[in-house]
From TrEMBL:
Catalytic activity: ATP + H2O = ADP + phosphate + H(+)
GO cellular component: nucleoplasm
Protein name, entry field: RNA helicase
Gene Ontology molecular functions: ATP binding; hydrolase activity; RNA binding; RNA helicase activity
């Protein structure tokens, strides 16, 4: 399998031959290959039937000429065989889905269409309903005509139907998995694997995906699991070519860096980076949060970068435009910035008003009082406002009211998108001429990271409307925090591979055990995760052999003696790091971090991976402390927390070597030094301080400070470092023990027989490389051993032990009463919630209190300023924490890898008060006055809460708990109202 499809070429296949299909009229190519299961022999009867079917009249004809990839995929369908279509956004993959539906309806067969999200399901339902009348919808929120021949549903609903043995699953001839690349999503991707593995064996499949370089591997897996051929039709063809521009922060122009032919313009790229206006630390402070990564908000009265950008786009007629942002706060700020622009004509204003009041009429008089309603009404921000409201998915309460307006496409000018609304990148039909990225960093649940080239390809694909625009325009706003290599990789990198995100859950195990034909072991054996692990073995063997040959070719004189010396050095560096961690911890460091303090920092850490083997510190630089500040944490009680127990960021003015324009040069930079684990660390604190100027913004001021640093070092070569014991008051026994061990090691170095050997440094570097190769070989061999065994085998055993210990299943794999409840809970942590039910916690409290407690299961955002809930709610939350801790400890005892306190802290009380008030009947605008939560975030949480309650109703029903069932139904009736549950305009 080729790693990339940058240049179309036939796919490499061990059991099929790749074919390139070329359109004679246009330079449009596609690759067609097929995967067969091992030992597959097509039967003559099926081949004849397929040929007869192919000769028949097409199931659907289209009023336009099909692209080669569409024609090839449709041929596969006519032949009655599964196909994976991998193509760019807006290439026309839906044509293949439409044909599959038409073919199924013609043949009086049932067809299932699944999508990742409810919004996309709603949109597709409306599209298909207009095309074919016999269409139904099932999303959990809404069920319309569940007996229709074509059923549109979310993938989770399809999985649930399979687990419950629904009659519908036995009648399905074709299953369409739209946006199947979503299978790599770390939280929900496993749903696709379960659904595909468990799919009816007589079904055929249509997989629609964004471009993935390992489409063939995916098709090989499907062919193996379902013992049927699976075709791959891949195209890199983009109906509307794209141009990629960079807009440097603080600049005023665009730089074309990738043209419509895909050529990277190196000179233009470096001109863009050289035009960057670095953000001064003083300015950053004054803005107090108004400066965001990727754009400069500007001072009061000044135009921000984004404002200038949109004005330029309108002037150049590059609209409509989608603006991607990965911060809800930034989305709201940008929307306010745009309010000064009037982007619509008089006739458009009339249309907007009609749509606006149609939406407003759905709201109660109280909901119309929400600030967002009056803001958008007064500002006349064009239909742009509706599209912003539509896709922010968390910034305003209108998100769900104005769920989708397909007619807004022609009028829309600008869309800001938040992390919770990455619906653009998964298929919602909302193309534009231009796409803008205000920044390219996002929070993925664990940490902030740059978006991958694959994510960039997916989202930028929204640019360029087929048949309307000659080209699409992508604009990347870049600031000085982004390395050139990162920007280049993003713009010119390849699509992300489709890798398994399979993981075990208790809900999955219990449903597999309960299911008549289910088997957790069989699911694991047939998972894409296991397939990829097995598939990797030949490559791993080859890698190990190459590395072993390289390692064995390294011959080192006196290797044993050198190893001994090397190990001493490793110990020394480890001890030095331990000493630094004590000396420069907040406990001892804080009193000496005043602005103006001279400090020495290490640019390259001397850790185990460093090729430096001197006992002295190398690659260091001196600078001046500007300020330090506490790193704000998540919800926690800080009242009794000591200052030294917190993490801090220290900002230091220094002269760093940076790579810019392809060459290294020194530049002034204020470097943030964060808690241990960052690449820059403080190694010395000077006893001297420099007077600090009031304003550090002028370059000359910073230059003068660095000049003073140089003059100080010229007079005091040592830097006058503070003595840890005499000056900093460090008296801990652990510190003294470390110092004694370091002194003992230092005496050994001089006595060591090899220390005087010539070229000792070079020999140590060779030995280090050899050691690293040995470690890599061991790692590869471990990977090979785990691949040959059943993936997750040990974890499966451990999780089964947990289920037995807690009474969810017997040793004979019979699901108990608790297990039946947990089987129904897939939208919350099933074990803790089930334990609360059986402990009587939910039965003994009022409905409003119960709903408030359940909110802790659906709220995942981290609020810094969340207030504590009232006493009775806090008591309930404490019971939840105690239950979660007990569940986590049982898992730990059963050898399930889990961070007990991390698990307990994953339940958050941030919206307990707000949900309690909502369940008591408070108006939405009243709730927004008592909580710092974004409107859309709260709406999403309450809707998820209703989803959990619906699952609890089924759970109570399954065990005959009529009292609890009635209580859960009452809870639903209390929260399911008004603006939070306003109906989608698609339906």
């Amino acid at each position: 399998m080729e790693d990339s499809y940058e240049t179309p070429q036939p796919m490499q296949n061990s059991n099929g031959n790749g074919t390139m299909i070329v359109n004679d009229d246009e330079p449009v190519t596609c690759l067609h290959d097929v995967s067969f299961p091992p030992g597959y022999v097509p039967s003559s009867s099926s081949t004849g039937a397929a040929a007869a079917e192919a000769d028949a009249k097409p199931a659907k004809e289209f009023p336009f000429t099909l692209d080669p990839f569409q024609s090839e995929a449709i041929k596969c369908l006519d032949n009655g065989e599964s196909v994976m279509v991998s193509a760019h956004t807006s290439a026309g993959k839906t044509v293949v889905a439409l044909y599959a539906i038409a073919m199924s309806l013609r043949n009086k067969q049932r067809v299932i269409y699944t999508s990742p999200i409810k919004a996309l399901s709603n949109q597709k339902y409306r599209e298909f309903k207009e095309e074919f009348s016999d269409v139904g919808l099932m999303t959990g929120d809404v069920t319309i005509d569940p007996n229709a021949s074509c059923l549109v549903m979310t993938t989770e609903i399809w999985r649930s139907m399979q687990y419950k043995g629904s009659e519908i699953t036995r009648e399905v001839a074709w299953v369409i998995f739209d946006e199947v690349h979503y299978m790599r999503d770390r939280e929900r991707g496993v749903v696709w694997e379960e659904s595909i593995v468990m799919a009816p064996k007589n079904s055929r499949f249509v997989f629609l995906s964004a471009t993935v370089p390992n489409a063939k591997e995916f098709a090989d897996w499907v062919a193996k699991v379902h013992q049927q051929p699976c075709h791959i039709v891949y195209t890199d063809y983009r109906p509307t070519p794209l141009q990629h521009y960079i807009f440097p922060a603080g600049g005023s122009g665009l730089y074309l860096v990738v043209d419509e032919k895909g050529k990277f313009r190196e000179d233009s790229f470096h001109k863009a980076l050289n035009a960057l206006v670095p953000a001064g630390e003083g300015e950053k402070k004054r803005e107090n949060g108004k400066r965001h990564k990727g754009l400069v908000a500007g001072k009061l009265g000044e135009e921000s970068d984004i404002f200038k950008m949109v004005k330029m786009i309108i002037q150049r007629q590059y609209d409509p435009v989608i603006i991607f942002s990965f911060s809800k706060r930034e989305c709201e700020f940008l929307a306010m910035q745009m309010a000064k622009l009037d982007l619509t004509e008089d006739d458009e204003k009339v249309n907007i008003e009609t749509i606006f009041w149609s939406a407003m009429d759905m709201l109660s008089d109280d909901d119309k009082k929400l600030p967002q309603a009056s803001f958008w009404l007064l500002r006349w921000f064009g239909l742009l406002s509706f599209v912003i409201l539509l896709f922010l998915s968390s910034v305003t309460c209108f998100t769900l009211v104005l769920h989708s307006l397909s007619l807004s496409v022609s009028l829309s000018v600008c869309v800001c998108e938040s992390p919770a609304a990455e619906t653009f990148s998964i298929g919602l039909n909302m193309p534009a001429k231009t796409v803008v990225f205000t920044n390219v960093r996002k929070f993925d649940g664990d940490k902030f990271r740059w978006i991958s080239s694959g994510e960039y390809i997916q989202m930028s694909g929204r640019a360029g409307r087929r048949g309307i625009d000659e080209r699409g325009i992508c604009i990347l706003m870049v600031d000085d925090k982004m390395e050139p290599s990162t920007a280049k990789m993003m713009l010119k990198g390849s699509a992300d591979s489709l890798n398994s995100a399979f993981h075990l859950s208790y809900n999955m195990l219990l449903n597999q055990i309960r299911c008549e034909e289910g088997s957790p072991e069989n699911l694991l054996r047939n998972s894409f995760y296991q397939f990829q692990a097995d598939h990797a073995i030949p490559d791993l063997e080859k890698q190990a052999k190459v590395l072993e040959e390289e390692r064995d070719s390294m011959v080192i004189e006196e290797e044993d003696s050198l190893k001994n010396y090397y190990n001493l050095l490793q110990q020394y560096k480890s001890l030095k790091k331990d000493v630094r961690d004590i000396v420069f911890s907040p406990k001892y460091c804080l009193p000496f971090l005043q602005p103006g303090r001279f400090v020495c920092i290490e640019c390259t850490r001397g850790d185990d991976n460093s090729p430096s083997f001197s006992t002295e510190d190398h690659q260091v630089t001196w600078g001046v402390v500007i300020e330090f500040e506490k790193v704000k944490g998540v919800y926690e009680d800080d009242a009794n927390k000591k200052p030294e127990d917190s993490n801090y960021t220290v900002n230091i003015l220094t002269r760093c070597v940076v790579s810019k324009g392809g060459a290294g040069k020194k530049t002034l930079k204020i470097v943030p030094l964060k808690e241990s684990g960052e690449p820059l660390v403080i190694i010395k604190l000077s006893s001297a301080r420099l007077p600090m100027p009031k304003d550090l913004l002028p370059l000359q001021t910073r230059e003068n400070m660095l000049k003073s640093t140089s003059e100080f070092l010229a007079r005091n070569a040592s830097g006058l470092p503070l003595d840890p014991e005499a000056n900093m008051g460090i008296r801990s026994s652990s510190y003294q023990k470390l110092v004694r061990r370091i002194e003992a090691l230092e005496s050994l170095f001089d006595k060591h027989e090899i220390s005087k050997s010539p070229l000792i440094e070079q020999k140590l570097k060779v030995l280090h490389m050899k050691q690293e190769l040995t470690a890599k070989i061991k790692s590869i061999k471990r990977q090979m051993r785990s691949s040959t065994e059943l993936a997750f085998k040990d974890e499966l055993k451990a999780r089964k032990r947990v289920l037995r210990r807690l009474g969810y299943a017997t040793s004979d794999d019979v699901v108990e009463l608790k297990g039946k409840v947990a089987c129904e809970i897939s939208s919350a942590e099933e074990l803790t919630l089930t334990e609360l039910i059986f402990n009587g916690v939910l039965k003994d409290v009022k409905v409003e209190e119960m709903v408030s407690l359940l909110s802790c299961f659906v709220w995942q955002e981290k609020l810094q300023d969340a207030s504590k809930p009232r006493e009775e709610l806090e008591l309930l939350f404490t019971q939840l924490q105690d239950t979660a801790r007990r569940v986590a400890k049982v898992q730990l005892e059963c050898k399930v890898q889990i961070d007990v306190e991390g698990f307990v802290n994953s339940f958050r009380p941030d919206i307990m008060e707000a949900v309690y008030a909502w369940a008591k009947g408070s108006k939405f605008y009243e709730i927004m006055e008592i909580t710092p939560v974004f409107e859309g975030s709260l709406i999403r949480a309450i809707r998820r809460l209703e989803e959990v309650l619906q699952q609890l109703i089924l759970a109570a029903k399954s065990i005959g708990e009529t009292e609890l069932e009635a209580k859960f139904e009452e809870a639903v009736s209390k929260i399911k109202r008004d603006i939070v549950f306003a109906a989608s305009l698609y339906l």
